[in-house]
Amino acid sequence: MSDQIAARLKEMGISLPEAAAPAANYVSYVISGNLLYISGQLPAENGKITTGHLGKDVDLATGQRAAELCAVNILAQARAALGGDLGRIKRVVKLNGFVASTPDFVEQHLVINGASNLIGAVLGEAGKHARAAVGMAALPLNAAVEIDAIMEIA
Where is each Endoribonuclease L-PSP/chorismate mutase-like domain found (predicted)? Predict the structure, then answer.
């Protein structure tokens, strides 16, 4: 991991967890050419998932924190895929954010800002990315948020 990225994580009080194992019939990441595809990550911390629906039983701040946790787990998967060297990330190409929400909740973009802000703060210029923020009726394990990522790597 590059020293600058490690310093940013430490400054933010973030210790990356071990990358989570897949929960079904898929792999956690795939490298194809110079692209790293990271499967959807849930807002898990210390074995507990942030659950529920925005607009019903999850408020905006909790949703944003859930998106941050997804981003932390994306970085953990990237570290595993890249042999521990997050400095190999040349660019986060795209984040796809899915928010479990009620039909009248329309602030999915603000929820996913939690992940975008964290990725940008940790990776700097390389963390600027395209993005989708989509409302969903339900997500696996009743997760409030799920985010996947595509990264260009060296």
Answer: 7-145
